[in-house]
């Protein structure tokens, strides 16, 4: 009797969810899940990858709890098994481990991380178009493409988008996506199995290599050399490499040789999205979850969470879970209550203004604030002014036009030009980098 109820529990959940999420969401995330077993105390589900598992629990834990048996903790009692990927060869799985069976990472791309789902804005337009260029003509434009930027800004999303695009449009090319950690683990495992040559061949036979989070290679001296050799071999054969990192190449604690290789192609920065872009992201993410958030609420969230898209997404998830798809009766008060912790943790202690920045730049560069706002082309003043503009764009969340106007009525293209120039200069000019850091620290404390 109970078993029968449990069995229909999953089916009921599916019915409930299907009626409430978009068809894309359902197809991408829910449909691939298979019910393996529903026992009294536990439901076993097979998922194609851990993303699907995380997605299910991240978004529907409470709904699942309404339909499935629970653990003592109140969580739904679900056991997940990840489906076996299609084996690379047909040798018996119980036989001795052949080098070909070596646990090289399988291509794991998040199905939702595609170009279509990537919202563009001034902060990421350049890096997105570089990514599209590389995906369209792998190995023929910028190589490697190095994408750097803060946590949760969409680097992995863009990286996987390139992977999806290549798989779909260049069917003959072999793509591999790895995290730096996984690459290191592969080396360790293959050393143990004495199959390191096989592994080398595997990596070196790829056409497109996607490397996520290269910063984890820092302080891993033994592995850095192997990584670098692999890179060089691939680059010499015009095989495409795309790397993400939380810092620019020059700021990573890696060998000069490695840094030089990474700077060989195009280094693109991923910035913090501006208000309008964040609103567009909130609207897109909520629609993916079958919920439509009004512009007013989207702006409200975007104004309170501004430096990390992953947090914005977490906020949307939380809203969806709480309001159980009844978005129409959300108002600012309810949203603030539901998201209050997220708002608090992301609100800076102090609002940074152009005036704060000018004051700090004037002190460090020993110029007057009036000179920073003026027109003088005197070299020292011009550089200080550009640094102030760079920091204003980096640190202040306002439209470029408004920020530019605070510099004695400059235009937004002057601001962008200054920002680009300083971004480039601090990669090569150690002195300037230190000065910029000093100003930034003064402003932030
Ligand atoms: P990173 O690798 O830079 O830490 P991720 O790529 O993991 O960040 O992005 C975090 C989350 O934010 C992902 O779910 C991603 O889909 C989302 N995201 C980031 N930027 C965008 C964007 N421009 N458009 C849509 N989603 C985005
Ligand atoms: Mg990432």
Structural class: alpha/beta
Query: What is the domain tally?
Result: 4
Q: Tally of extended strands?
A: 8
What is the H/E string? HHEEHEHEHEHHEHEHEHHHHHHHHHH
Number of helical elements: 19
Name of the CATH superfamily of the largest domain: P-loop containing nucleotide triphosphate hydrolases
Name the CATH architecture of the largest domain. Answer: 3-Layer(aba) Sandwich
Give the CATH topology of the largest domain: Rossmann fold
Main sheet attributes: strand count, strand direction, barrel closure? 5 strands, parallel
Helical content, roughly?
A: 40-55%
Percent range for β-strand residues: 5-15%
Bound molecules: adenosine-5'-diphosphate, magnesium ion
What would you say this structure looks like, in words?
The structure is a single chain. The protein contains 19 helices and 8 strands. It is of the alpha/beta class and 445 residues long. The protein folds into 4 domains: 81 residues, GMP Synthetase, Chain A, domain 3 (2-Layer Sandwich); 172 residues, Rossmann fold; 72 residues; 91 residues, DnaA protein, C-terminal DNA-binding domain (Chromosomal Replication Initiator Protein Dnaa, Chain: A). Helix 10 crosses helix 12 and helix 11 packs parallel to helix 13. It starts with a helix and ends with a helix. It binds adenosine-5'-diphosphate and magnesium ion. Adenosine-5'-diphosphate binds next to helix 5 and helix 12.
